[in-house]
Amino acid sequence: ELAPEADGTRRLATPAGVILTTHDAPVRPGSRLAIRSEEVSLIDTGEAADGRVAGTVEHVEFRGSVTGYMVRTAAGAVRVDVWTAQQKRPCARGESVVLGMPRTAQIVEAG
After folding, report:
1. What is the pTM of this model?
2. How high is the mean pLDDT of the chain?
3. Nearest-angstrom CA–CA distance, 28 and 52
4. How far apart are CA 96 and CA 55, in angstroms?
5. Gap between the Cα atoms of 56 and 98, Å rounded
6. What is the pLDDT of residues 33-71, one digit of tens each?
7. Mind giving me the DSSP string for the chain?
8. What is the largest CA-CA distance in the chain?
9. pLDDT reading at 111 higher than 70
């Protein structure tokens, strides 16, 4: 765990970059982050920074009002669900993207 931000938001170092969270559970060896797929934002340009993770789109699934993506990051696969109508354009398989990770990420123990 890194030094927190001024507002108390925790900064967690992961293989994919620094994730920000307001969750107060302790971080132990083997801990994981649980993130709701609809709370991850898909940013098709930009660089990874605190709270953002770079990845590559592995799978795209159009489900009407929602488009689902599986994005491979340095920390593993992340599922992202976005409202189809709110996307500037759909992302394609193999495309590099940046994910905006929510500060609501929950710390859970692996088990």
Report:
1. 0.82
2. 87
3. 22
4. 6
5. 8
6. 888 889 998 886 677 688 899 999 999 999 999 999 999
7. -BPPPTT--EEEEETTEEEEE---PPP-TT-EEE--GGGSEEESSS---TTEEEEEEEEEEEETTEEEEEEEETTEEEEEEEEGGG-SS---TT-EEEEE--TTPEEE---
8. 42
9. no
The pair of structure tokens assigned to 1 is 């765990």
Q: How many residues does the chain have?
A: 111
Tens of pLDDT along 81-101?
999 888 888 899 999 999 999
Nearest to 92 by CA among 60, 54, 70: 60
What tokens appear for 111 in the block? 């088990």
Which two structure tokens, joined as six digits, stand for 86? 């709110």
